[in-house]
Structures are given as C-alpha cells and as structure tokens.
Amino acid sequence: MFWKSSSYHWDVIGWPSDLANITREQANAYYDMYYAPNNLTLILVGDLDPDEMIKLVRKYFDRIPRGTTEPPEVYTLEEKQYGEKRLITEAETNPQAEIWYHTVAWKHPDSYPLDVLAGIMNDKTGRLYKKLVEEEGIAKSSVDRSGMRMFGGSGLAVAAYQESKKYAGAFRVSAEGVSGVRAEQLEAAMDEVIEEVKSELVTEDELQKVKNRIRVQQIRFMDIMSGIGILFYVGQNAAFGDWAEANNSPDKIDMVTAEDVRRVANKYFARDGRNVLIVNTKGGPEGGSASGEDPHLAQAITMITSIEDPARLEQMIGMFSMRMDSIEDPEERAQMEKLLKIANDHLKELKAAEGM
Q1: How many CA atoms lie within 13 A of 5 on its CB side?
Q2: Same domain, 243 and 337
Q3: What is the C-alpha separation between 353 and 356, in angstroms, rounded?
C-alpha cells in the first residue's frame, strides 16, 4: 500500500506465484545479472596489511569474469501521494496501529533531523512510551523482538523509525495495544504525539540525550558478534553509494537543532500523504481476545507443544534460558518463565514416552 511507483513495492524474495511460474532460465538470468563481481562490494575488517590484502583480493577475485549483462539503472522513483490511504482489518493478534509517511532518501540533509525526531519519540523516556504506555495505558510496554534487539532494536511495543533507503525514505510510527483496546485508540494517541512535535520545540536536554543515544546505539551495533557489526554498517553505506558516510553521519546528527526537528515534522507529517494500518483483534467483545490471553504467547505455546524432537526442544530451552538474563520488563519476564515451564514439562513428557 505504501510504495506505489517505486521498485520498493516488490519484496526482494518475490511473491508466492513466482515460485510456480518462474523458469530455470529466468532464475539463472536473474542470478547472473545481479550476483556478478561487477555488482559486488568486498569489505575486509580487521588488523590487516592493506597492500598484502589487495594482492590476495586480486589473486582470488580478478579471475572471476564480469557479468555479461549489467544491472539496469533505476529510473522510476516514488510519485507524490495526494491523499491518505488506510488499510483496516482484523487478525488473531493484539490490536496494532501503524502510521507511515513518505520522507527522504539516504544522505538527504533532512534524513538526519528525521533520525533525531524518531529518537525523540522512541525509547522508554520517549514521547510515544510516555503517552501510550504510562499516561493512557493502552499500549504494551514491550514485545518479543529478539532479532531486532540483536541489530539495535529496543523491543518496545511503541516505536518510531526513519528508514532512509537508497532512492526514497519512510517514517513509521507503530504501537501494539493491550488486550481489549481498539487500534483506533492507538492511532488517536499517536496522532497527539505527532501533533505535539509539529507544534512545540523539543528541549535542548531532550535533544542532546537523543543524540547521545543514537551515537551509543551505532557503537553497540558495530560491536555485535565480536565486531562483525562493523561489516554490516560499512557495507550498507557502501551499497547505498558511499562507505564514508559510516564515519560522517554521527557528526551530521550532532548538528541537528530543535528547529530542524520541528521543521521536518511539519514538512513530512502531512495528513494527505500518510498511510495508516489498523489491525483489531479478531473475535471476542470489542475486538478483544476471546480468551483474554496474549495471542503471541498462545502462538508460542502452540509451537512448543508441537515439537516432538527432545533434542530440538532442549536447544530451544537453552535459548530461552540465555535470554532470561537480558529481559528487564516484568511482563515479558513472566511470559518467558511461563514458556520455560511449559517447555520443560513437555520435554519430560517426550523423554518419558521414549523411555529416556
């Protein structure tokens, strides 16, 4: 719904119908065009001798021929949106609401204040958490997003994010509600926060706190998996067009002012250019869960009890146990303890059935 003319409209993995209809020749042609050395960026990270490494790179990579067909240039960009678009549905999940705005591409001067604006809204001290979780109590405090946490995500159920892609950008505001509320309540509360940043200047203390947090998050991201995050961070910037942006962006973030933040909020948070997703809980009174149980928790329990391999279940229990040490939210910790008990009880049943 969000991307219309841009090629971002298509996911990289394609569509289910592609699997049934694509030919071997088409698949090979696609692979040969895009997965060729002339479309590759090689990144070396470590305490290396540059001259020696360049010799090795040439030795092992120069012998791989260029692709015969160059990847086509991107000409079609996202066209301007002239009216609000809404998607309203129901699903077996907690109520959720998302608001998306078209913004700017990577390295655009406005991308930096937009990053700061997302920081103003984010985190447990941010505007969204204070409004939806602490003041109104309509949103969950956290969700199970372990993958996002690994790559710098917060794991909070309310979030704002500026995604600056190579050719265009998107600003997303999202919230997951507690059982029994309507997604429209989440949208209304998010709108209040959005209007607040459009009308008021953020304080200098708030601004500096966000800048500090962004810098710390970048450092922590680069340190993940014993420093392999540096590869991802530099690699993404290289793929976009300039690896040096990995070094330059922190200074550009530091130059953002409170006036910049309010300016980009008013420029890009337009009512006629936004996209809204409303998901209410399917079944139950007022869209609430019929059982009153968190649908995500119920899904996890179903997954655990469906496992018939003791070794696989033991591996899952080990992963759950390792994560327990990093969980601070009481609600999330209680859910994890419940899942661990169910998993251990199921493991005992499986071992007893096998006579182990």
Answers
A1: 11
A2: no
A3: 8
Helices 111-121 and 245-254 sit at what angle, rounded to 10 degrees? 60
35 and 182 in a single domain? The answer is no
Over the Cα atoms of the chain, what is R_g? 24
The model's pTM = 0.76
- Mean pLDDT over each residue of the chain, to the nearest integer: 88
**Tens digit of each residue's pLDDT (9 = 90 or more) over 117-168:** 999 999 999 999 999 999 999 999 877 544 444 344 557 899 999 999 999 9
C-beta atoms surrounding 129 within 10 Å = 23
Core vs surface per residue 231-256: b (16+ CB within 10 A) or e: eebbbebbebeebebbeebeeebeeb
136 and 236 housed in the same domain: yes
**Residue linked to tokens 């962004």:** 214
Report the relative pairing of strands 85-91 and 274-281 from DSSP bridges.
parallel
Q: Residue 301 and residue 295: Cα distance in Å, rounded?
A: 10
Tell me how far apart the alpha carbons of residues 256 and 210 are, in angstroms, rounded to a whole number.
11
What are the residues facing 89 on neighbouring strands?
279
Amino acid at site 154: S
What is the per-residue pLDDT across 36-58, written as a single tens digit (0 to 9) for each?
988 888 888 788 999 999 999 99
Residue tagged 């899904």 (tokens) = 299
Eight-class DSSP state of 25: H
List, in sequence order, every residue forming a beta bridge with 88; answer none if it has no partner. Answer: 278
* Residue 355 zone, left/alpha/beta (φ > 0; ψ -120 to 50; rest): left
The amino acid occupying position 65 is P
- Residue (of 112, 132, 119) closest to 202 by Cα position: 119
Token readout for 116 is: 């700061």
Please, are residues 121 and 197 in contact by the beta-carbon 8 Å criterion?
A: yes
Q: Are residues 26 and 164 in the same domain?
A: no
